[in-house]
Amino acid sequence: MVKPELGSLIGAVVILGFFSAQSDVFRSLAGVANWLDVASVLGIMAVAVALLMIGGHFDLSAGVMTGTTALTVGIVAVELQQNIWVAIAAALVLALGIGAFNGWLVTRTGLPSFIITLGTFLMLQGLNLGLTKLFTGTVIVRGIADAPGYHSAELVLASTIDVFGQPFRVAVLWWLLVTAVASWVLLRTRFGNWVFATGGDEVASRNVGVPAQRTTIVLFMTTATAAWLVGSITAVRLTSVQANTGTGQELIYIVAAVIGGCLLTGGFGSAIGAALGALIFGMTQQGIVYLNWDADWFYFFLGAMLLLAVLTNRLVRRYAEAARR
Amino acid sequence: MSTATDAPGGAPLLELRGIGKDFGSVIALEGISTAVRAGQVTCVLGDNGAGKSTLIKVLSGVHRPTRGELLLDGEPVDFGAPRDALDAGIATVYQDLAMIPLMSIWRNFFLGSEPTTGWGPFRRFDRATAKEVTRRELAAMGIDIRDPDQPVGTLSGGERQSVAIARAVHFGARVLILDEPTSALGVKQAAVVLRYIAQARDQGLGVVFITHNPHHAHPVGDRFLLLNRGRSMGDFAKGEVTREQLTEMMAGGDELTRLAEELGRPGGA
């Protein structure tokens, strides 16, 4: 069986080699910490989105949901003056609710998840702005650092760890943990088998007794949980949250997952691939800055990577269905 | 495999009594009765749109029948979901939908019934067992698979049907429903599948073989249920009907004669 993440692994090595050869800042410890930081927050989401895509669905509300959860943490902690852990717990409950709603609506109606989550995306975008204004009178929630319990939350979500004297963001550890757990679940558990099956052929999986609807709903709740983790990290790290946080990121997650080998049609892909896709994204974004190139080239490059990945993925699918008669 | 306790005279494994199914105002099935016995093959024959698919879905728990009774070992049963039918030992191998092409053979083999090891949050899919059992079961059916890790999509149609049959047998199916297993296959591949059907029968399973090809049905069948537009055109035992009669009933005898005349005219003139 072809490994889905092979292409992204080669891509990551090539890009690492290219920028390391060109820029000594890029290959310095400070540089590594910098691009790993960019990759980590994106990677947590890309991995969850990859699971969902393997399960055959998209979640366009994933980006804005990182904003929704970050704002919830801010509003509950600052405006409602609760302990920050209470605020983080409230954001989790909300995220799980939104994820369950997305999943329930998709399984219930059989409509494309693309259009359903586009709907929740727009609704959340409006709610983020509307409720932030309602609570704060502005489009920003400030003062999260003053909430009770902030220091313990900072330690868990936004501290740094020194490696050879260079501080690395703790988010990198979260990213590695999420990737490891997701990969384990996908490849080593019954649920993982159901994810592949549901995305590969939902009717066939139901016929052999796979709880396809439950699998889909759990996957939507997983992307929502990832959004909650990223939202909480964002809120605690920045201590203030803009109402438009996360908007527009949803497509980047999908790009990272596709670069990592996920098929748009579902049923194939890998969590490690998506993490590597996020790594490619982080290295390129920071690498271009270090080389003093115009940042516009970043998007050109990203688009080219995406096309290359999609073409490779198509070959993989052809191979796997080669003898279909 | 627990053997069938029912002698030919006893209660059949599965019995249908006057089964009917409506979709809104459309009557898809009406008055279907037949029996499936252990170690026998019941063939369901019918043209496209005869109601074969609906009948399978009733037997496999996808649809609830609107009328009539389904009896398992002589006891009435009511399947609310495919899982219920599976748990009762009724396994269905669907024409095109039996397998996920992008998944490996061993993942497909155990799909929905994965063996696990470990405990609590560390309970995991026992991959070593799954691979080993897949290899063993396929070998027992005489299916030679090079590598259980290869995607099912790379198998031929006949191989895929055979894997699906082996899977059903392994999971203790007592009744095996095969939906047009030979229809998309060439002569050689079809012969391979027919041999597996006979093998499943010899292992004591009750087989329901759905087909529109009397040449495939007659050699292996013990009972023949003919469907036309959702109604039964007869339920015959093997001795009661010849292959020619089956072919004629399937083709709608008179219609075919008339068609032959109609098509023959310009050439004959």
UniProtKB/TrEMBL annotation, chain B:
The keyword ATP-binding applies. Keywords: ATP-binding, Nucleotide-binding. One of its GO terms (molecular function) is ATP binding. Residues 14-254 form the ABC transporter domain. It comes from the Bacteria. Pfam families: ABC_tran. InterPro entries: AAA+_ATPase, ABC_carbohydrate_import_ATPase, ABC_transporter-like_ATP-bd, P-loop_NTPase. PANTHER family: CARBOHYDRATE TRANSPORT ATP-BINDING PROTEIN MG119-RELATED, SUGAR ABC TRANSPORTER ATP-BINDING PROTEIN. This is Sugar ABC transporter ATP-binding protein. It comes from Modestobacter caceresii.
